[in-house]
Structure formats: C-alpha cells, structure tokens
Amino acid sequence: MPRLSKLSVMLVLLLALAATAHAAELVDRVVAVVNGKLITLFDLDTRVAELVQRTQGVAIKPDDPMYADLRKQVLDSMITDMLIESEAARLKINVSETELDNQLEELRKKNNMNQQQFVAELAKEGMTLADFRKRMRQDNMKKRLLGYMVHRKVLVTDDEIRDYYEKNKSNLSSTKSILGPKVSGNIGFIMVSNVKQAEEVRAKIDSGSITFADAAKKYSIGPGKDQGGDLGDVQAKDLAAPLRSALQAVPAGKVSAPVMLDGKAVLLTLRTPSGQAPAPKAAPADPAGPSYESAKEQIQETLYKQKFDKLFQEYIDNLRSKAVVEVKL
Fold this sequence. Notes:
Elements: H1 6-14, E1 30-34, E2 37-40, H2 41-53, H3 65-90, H4 97-110, H5 115-124, H6 129-149, H7 158-168, E3 187-192, H8 195-207, H9 212-219, H10 241-248, E4 259-261, E5 264-270, H11 292-322, E6 325-327
Antiparallel strand pairs: 1-2, 1-6, 3-5, 4-5
Helix pairs in contact: 1-3, 2-3, 3-6, 7-11
C-alpha cells in the first residue's frame, strides 16, 4: 500500500481550504461527465475538503492560481476512480467486507497490534479506519483488474533487490509503516519560518556540517520532515512556479536559494538518480543501515509497487482513451 500520495503532499504544499472559498458558485454544477455519469462541483469540493482535513496545509488565498490547479488534480483522480469502478462493475469484480476484515486481521497480526493500537497508528498517518478500508478496496480492485486485462505478472528479481539495497542501504529505515513501504522521491524540501533562518540552514548544509536530510528532520516545519524532506513521488512539474524555477536553477545535490511560499521560506534540492542527495565531502559517513536480510522484504514491496503502478497507469491510460470523458471545470 502506498505512502502518502502525490496529491496529499501537494495539498500540504499549497493550501488549507477556506470553507467559503466558492460560496457564490452553484454547488450542483456539472464539472465532468464520464461515460454518461456526472461529477458535480459539490462532489469535487467535498473531496478536496476531505483531503485537506487530513493534512496541515499552508494557507493561500482562494483566488490563487494554484487553487485552480489543485482542483484539476483532484478532479482527475475522481475520473480515474470512476473508470476503475465502472470497469470493475463490467467485469463483475467485487471485494467483500469479509475479505477486507480478513486482510485487516492479518495486517494487525503481522504488526503485533490490537484494534485500538492499529487505529492509533493509522491516525499518525493521517487516516481513519474507514479511509484505510476504502484504500484497501481500491488496491484489491486494481490488482484484480490488472490480472483480468493485462495478464502480466509483476516480478521482482533477487538481483533487482540486491542492486536497490546496495544503492540505497544508508537511506533504508528499520521501521516499517503499516501503510507499506515509503518510496523515496527525487525532491528534497525544507520549510522554515523566515529567510534568515533558511540562509543559516543552507549555509550549514553547504559547509558539510549537516546533511540535507538531517537538516529537514531538525529544522523543517513542512511536509516530509520525518522523511528527511523527502516529497515522495512529487516531481518538479508538480511544484508551484517559484519553487520549480528555484529547483531548476541549481545542480543536483545542491541547495536552492530560499523561496518564499505563503510567508514561509523554502529550501529545495534535486536528488541524484539513485534517490539520495550526495552528502557534502565534509559530512560524516552515513550509518550502514539495516542488513540486507532485514531490508529485503521492504525493498521487494517498494520495487513491486513501482512496477505495479507503472503497469496500472498504462492500463488506466488505455481505458481513458476509449472512454467518453468531458471535463467542464
């Protein structure tokens, strides 16, 4: 099961939704039609509000252009969900409540948790049990759809696992989330209160007295703090224009000049292709990380998810090309 999604991270970066942002609009206006089924403005704004409720956003004004971009991202995910549900219904694919109960029970046993502990752990990840069941149902439907239509097995070889371990062992954690492996992305993000503090943090990183990841854990008040500033699968193209420009202006592994985002100062770095920003020469060596045997299962799940998501996205793109989708937002 995936880590915090790109959309959720973007929510943290972009906004805390104002409840009256679009009170003047007709809440029942149709914003998309998918194979004859409607998505209304009310449906869309309800979904956005639900997502924001699970995050701690950086407030921006409702008329900011980024708000419109966010709505389009949410609408696109709703269209994808509708295509999945429609295809599952056509193929008579169903995930019963009993199946979900059994999977949850296995997951609790695997993590040595009772029901109360499990719910508490989900809360730390910003999810309710109902949210988690919904995600499990979607994951199960995706796997069955892929099995029906793609007829390809997602295989991860021992050589791939070993190669990933050697390249990333210093960045692997011995702690495993119940939501599954956290896949490292290529953008590092640090948010602090003001430009002066950002310059001080940047100077420490550049001098080699601290790594970018450690600085994020110590100083950042933004998303990805506990992951060393890792934004997951967010790409440069997903960032607001000022952040994107700052990131493009520095070489991989270097730290951008401070960029203001809604009154806060942001530092960015672009990680190397291996997924790890190179440590400055003067920085102490990273810890060895967990052993290969202890990390093998985590790596296998990570690589499996990467391959599965790629195959499934190709499948969804094919479905969408054949569907009648009209966006009116």
